[in-house]
């Protein structure tokens, strides 16, 4: 991911907000007011996803020489239902905010936005290279992301950072955290192994676009494991 990450998810979220139908929300019959609320809420939550993408991408943008065992890609389809929204990004340029994942030397970073239907949004981000301490890398990414999300969007961590071991996951560590901003929630799962560190941030909007469905971290962890499996390829 480059520090010029496009703001595609907010736009997609706003489009989703506009598909809630002419019935609007509430009993006032003012569809314009409902549409405005949907757009504002969806854009606010979608913006948090883009903040995550920019932050995580920045942590990975350091060139390296170690040959990775695996590399990450941005395939057109993830987890059987999420379709890439636009082009995937690949970077190997300058650092963002002068930060670096401890113990990681990255060869390249990737980022892509995905959607499934009108309500499901997903952001994939990560890098590949050499990772000496996967657990420390994942904890650090969550620590930095939580601080920056709070500062830039007002989002707060909900509950605790939890470790999961989905059946489809064969990396070293996978953890997930819920974040809330206003009446919107998003889930972020991060993984690491000896050659990759990645994150999957997702949200599911309600049909009227005014809020999000409750976060299920276990299901998000299973989704992250599938996304990782689809995005991971053996290095040439």
From TrEMBL:
<feature type="region of interest" description="Disordered">
    <location>
        <begin position="66"/>
        <end position="102"/>
    </location>
</feature>
<keyword id="KW-0812">Transmembrane</keyword>
<protein>
    <recommendedName>
        <fullName>Secreted protein</fullName>
    </recommendedName>
</protein>
<feature type="transmembrane region" description="Helical">
    <location>
        <begin position="42"/>
        <end position="62"/>
    </location>
</feature>
<feature type="region of interest" description="Disordered">
    <location>
        <begin position="1"/>
        <end position="41"/>
    </location>
</feature>
<keyword id="KW-1133">Transmembrane helix</keyword>
<feature type="compositionally biased region" description="Basic and acidic residues">
    <location>
        <begin position="82"/>
        <end position="100"/>
    </location>
</feature>
<keyword id="KW-0472">Membrane</keyword>
<feature type="compositionally biased region" description="Gly residues">
    <location>
        <begin position="17"/>
        <end position="36"/>
    </location>
</feature>
